[in-house]
Design goal:
The protein is an alpha+beta fold and 303 residues long. The chain is built from 8 helices and 9 strands. A hairpin with an 8-residue loop joins strand 5 and strand 6. Helix 7 packs antiparallel against helix 8. The radius of gyration is 23 Å and the shape is globular.
Length: 303
Amino acid sequence: GRQIFQPLHTLRSAEKELLPGFHQFEWQPALKNVSSSWDVGIINGLSGWTASVDDVPADTIARRFRYDVALVSALKDLEEDIMEGLRQRGLDDSTCTSGFTVVVKESCDGMGDVSEKHGSGPAVPEKAVRFSFTIMSISVRADGEEDAVTIFQEQKPNSELSCRPLCLMFVDESDHETLTAILGPVVAERKAMLESRLILSVGGLLRSFRFFFRGTGFDEKMVREMEGLEASGSTYVCTLCDSTRAEASKNMVLHSITRSHTENLERYEIWRTNPFSESAEELRDRVKGVSAKPFMETQTTLD
């Protein structure tokens, strides 16, 4: 047969498309703050982190997928379910090329002590933390229709099988600085994806997806860590309001949700700068137990 010479990069690209887990996709508009290489596999957990002046370089081992690549892979795994969902709803798949909405549940928790009891491996911190996500539902609004129709719903949202690890790190979940350094870039990628649409081939046609993220898989310890609140021994017990232990024990009813991520940031600034030159006690009372910089807003909804 005729020999066709092709430049090496063309062959490389062709080769990549044959690899399992490789999917070509595009974001419109292109994602800000995210590396532009689309053939990424597992990356260093600290990549994407730009150290600021008061950060200490994090000395830890972390590995993660780029968030958008992991979501693409999860959607491609659900390709048959998506097509089946369209069929069951009587929707013509050739007209449903845009208007897809994906709801993602984020989860994060410590994995406890993972130290090697008697091995001779590398010295690593004894604790590990896993950040993962689950695709909860996919819906589509067909052209000209008012309401969106759900075409996929995860039947076992809390199962290990539907939960996909995004980032694994050797870190104690109460090490606020290291967590910030590792999950900061994940948050930046998530924020970028909220302002863009994913164009991906599903069932042989290019379709566009929007993503919504919900943080229902975080336990209270993790939420306190990410929002910069004092830990469990604090006088200020509530993750959502400013009540103290004493107040809460007297009054279980009149609770109002008063905290917001932005407000916590403002309080952290007050804690850091102490503009009124108060004593430590007065300062604590002013910021109601916010003592670190919050780095992740965990928007909860019912799971």
